[in-house]
Structures are given as C-alpha cells and as structure tokens.
Amino acid sequence: MSARRPVVVIRILACFGALFCAAFWAKPVSARSGGTQTASAAPASASIGNVDVSARADGVTITIDVSAVAALSPSRASNPDRLIFDFPGFELKGNNRHIPVNRGPVKELRISQFRVRPPVTRMVVESSEALDYRMKRVANGTVVIEIPFAKPGPDSGQSNAPSAEGADAVTRAQTRPQSGSPPPTPAETRLNLEKPQPAESQNRTETPPVQLELAPVERAGTRPAKPAPGPPGAYALMDKAKALKLDDLQPLEEKARAGDPEAQTLLALAYYSGSLLKVDDDEAMRLLHQAADRGYMAAEESLGMFAEAGVGREQRQPAFADALAWYHKAAQQGSMDAATDIALLYANGKGVPRDPAQAVVWFRKAADGGDGSAQYNLALMYERGEGVPQDYKEAVRWLTAAADQGLVPPLLALAELFLQPPNSSMTADTSKAIQYYEQAAAKGSATAQVTLGTIFSRGLQGKVDYAQAIEWYKKAADKGEPDGEFALGVSYALGHGAAVDYALARRWLTAAANQGQIEAQYDLAIICEQGNGAPPDRDLASHYYQMAADRGMAKAQYRFGLFLAKGASGSDRIAAYKWLTLAGDSIKESLEPLNNLKKSMNPQEIAQADQDVQYWRAAHGHEKR
At the topology level of CATH, where does 46-157 sit? Predict the structure, then answer.
C-alpha cells in the first residue's frame, strides 16, 4: 500500500520560516534540505550533576541537574532502540553512570563524558522499542525529560515533540509506515497495553487514476460494522485498572482469591501498571495465568501482549511465538483486539514469516467485527496494495468506518486525502479537508490544529484569514506542540492575526526552539543577533545558531559562520571557518567570506579548522537541511 507524503503542515510551515527570515535578513541564500539531528551548544564551563530517574504508571521521568540553561535535541538510534541526548559544552561531574530502570520498554540509562575537548556529555536511554519523549521543563538548573509508555510517537515523523492525539478515543498515533514498510507493530503503537493504534500518514506516491469517493462502497450489502457489545477485553480492563483507587484494592483482591477471572485479570493489570502504588510483574503473571486457565479471553489477550513486550521474561526479551499462541486462543473466543494483534505480527514478520496476505485476512476479520484500529490498518493495506490489489475506494471505505468511530488518525488521513489527493486525477476539496481536520482538532489533535492554522494562513480555503490561523496556532501551542509554538511566534513577529509583538514572538519561538524545532532555532538566533524587540544578545544568538547548525541546517551554518567571523579571537575564527566550509557544501555565497577569513588566519588555525570540519562530517555525515 503506498504510503503518504508528510502531513501538509510541515511543508507549509517551512514557508513561514522563509517569510520570517526575510523580515530580518534580506540577503538571499540557496540551501538544500535534509540533515541529521544533534544537540545544541551550551555556555562554557557548564556541568551536569545529579541525574534522577523516577518511574510512574505511564512512563519514566528523568531529572537532570545542570549548571546552565541546556537546550538540547535528541537523536534516535535502532538495533537496539535508544534515545540519545547530547549536551555539548557540558562536563559531567563525578564518574560515568549506569542506572538500571526496567520499567515498561525502558531498560536502562547511561550518562558519560562523551568528549573532553570540546566537552560533550552524552545520555543514552536504552529501550526494547522506539520511544517518544517530551522535554517538560528546560530551565536554568534543571532539565526534565518525560518518556511516556502509553502515548508513543511524534506527529508525522517531523517533530520530536509529542502532542495529544484523540485522548478521548484511543492513544495517539505513531508515525505512519513509510512506503514499503509494514503497518505498525503493537510495540510501536502502544507500550502499556493500550488500545492498538494505527498511525498517522507520512508519504504518498503517485498511483493509477481513481475516483475519490467518501460514500462507503458497499460489500455484500453492508457497510463496515461498529463494535458489538461483549465481554471486556484487555485494553478495556487496562483502562479500568488505571482508574482504580486504593479503596478498590481489598475487595478486588478478595474477588481474585475467590477465583473471579475478571478480578484476577484486572488486579494483574493494576499490578503491572502500578496504579495501586504496587508494581509486581511476577504476581501479575501468576494472576493472568490463573484467569487464562479458566479460559478468560482478556487474560489470554494480556498474556499475548506481555509475551510480545517481554514482560516476565529475562531482560524483557519478546517471545513472539508465545504471543501468537495466546492471541490465537483469544481470537478463537471472538477477540477482535487479538485478531488485530495477529495481523500486525504477520504484517511485520514478528514470530512468523512476514505475510501481508495473511495480515489482511486477520485485519479483515477484526475490521468486519467493528475494531476501529483494524479498519484503519486494513485501509492502509488497500492504499499501499500490500496483501491485496491497490484499491483507493476500499481504502476510503475503511478509513470512513474507522473515522466514524471517532479515531483521530483516520480523520487526519481523510482530511489529507481531500487537501492533497494522491495523484492529479483526484480532485481536492479543502472544505471537506477542513471538516475532518476540525473533527480531529476537537478531539485534541495538535497536528490538526496546526494544519488548520496553516490552511487559513495560506488562504488554501479561498482567502487568507490570519485571525482564524492564529487561534488554531494558539490551541496547538498551548498543548506544547513545537510546530504550533513556532507558527505562533512567527505570527506575532510578522503581525499576522495580531499586532506585532516581539516579546510574545520570542516567548513562543524559544519554547519551540527548546523542543528542537529547527526553524524556530534559526529564526530566534536572528532576532537575538539583530535585537528585534530587545537589545541584541550575542550569547543567545550564538546558542541558537549552534543548535540549528549542529543539526545540519546549511543556512544556519552560513549565518553562524558570518556571525563568528566578526569575533576577534582565534577560536571564533576557527569556528567561523568550520561553519562556512560546511555551509559551502550547499550555499555558494559561503566561498567569498571563507576566503576573506583565511587571510586573517595562521596555518595552525586553518589546520585546526580543517580538522574540526572532518570531525563534524564524520559524526554527522554530509546531509544538509
């Protein structure tokens, strides 16, 4: 099934960055896109002290004591999965540290002095699967990073910061699979026994002409079903377990001892999640096996999920064969959730050979039974043509069925279909796109809120409406969505939808920049350098230029090189040479100031600068933003 292009908001927001930069810097610069993500620089002589890790029922919180403001951007690595946080300019006080965590997918945390000259401290969070994160607070003296278990994934794969997607329906979607990749696995869609969640869209490729219809295509005289009432499944019981109070513990334990399988399963999930202030995976496993021995479906589902996540196993190694066996037992009793999980195992080749056709069989079984997550995943299979012939009508039919259940990802997918049809033969309908985005936004989707702001600010609905745009940006920014914060900052800087207010522009750009929004980092550096709305601040300008330049943004490297070339010290000249050289890979204007700079440098300085360029390229590759 062909995957989709990125949600339109990312592409359009880049235009805001260009407009904003033009307002503060008129000189044109040509640059390519691409690049890697690393962290930003910090003031000299900064240090990292105590590092504390605390576990919650729904995640892990890491609190880091720092001696100066630390604005950092993480990178992700796989095989094994891990989050990497670099603190350039920071020295680690005391010895390197290794902190076992073993909660949810988080295995351990390591922090060490990665480099001595210049100093770089690196923190690595090892995990059993891809993690999301949020920098809850980055202040002078403290960095707080939250890693949720139940709500994975940045919107659209474009931003590192999460947002609340459809909190009243299902947990938020992970990034939608790239073209040629399978649908998301349970481990990618939920970490703490949440409802299996389909993913938001990414890339769309050209496909044969089709007629776009939202009216459901009838099959066997029926439209896709909605869920039928039945006994509670594992996901429903996990939601119930999380809502338990301490007063509920004693009567629940009494029912479990009496052999009530639902009470046993509920208590097991409470022990696993820690909702009753007691975490005991072994007791959770014992109770689930007791309930499963009685043929209780939700216990079988839960044991499948536990096996897939490695719960109760040494080093939390997944046991996919065991998971598949438990899912089959639950599916035989009519569990649509288990059928969906079986489909995901076949789609991803986890514990079984990868088999898209078999995945479709199980997705359809669950989708026909009314499981919204299966309906969405089945739509993805039809759209990409995996396991079935590519069929956009069937894709739309199943997207509509899932959207009718109030799930956010299919609402976003339908909205994008109308805003950006997959090929030239399909007619865009912005009004319908807005309708679906508004439904998703009403359910708390920050992606939808930012995209609506972009639609109105660009006039895609017929005319520019900055007043509506800024209201949508405010909603997303208030959720901590970095693209919303960036767009809101730009709006205040340009006076779009509100009077020009550089104080507010700085506030929101700073919030976005500190969450890794690279255009915000670049624009904020410019206004700090030029003193728009406040006196020029060379230190902050350098700080944010460094953030964007370190992540491979060519225009930031160029501008940072020009900025440093004005400095009088040899270290400034060496750094300026480095950044102008790196920018020269993409920006031809870098050659003239670089040649002029060389004339003021001695051979030792040039040799050191060349070495710094080699080090940077070795660490970051040659990609550019």
Answer: Immunoglobulin-like (2.60.40)
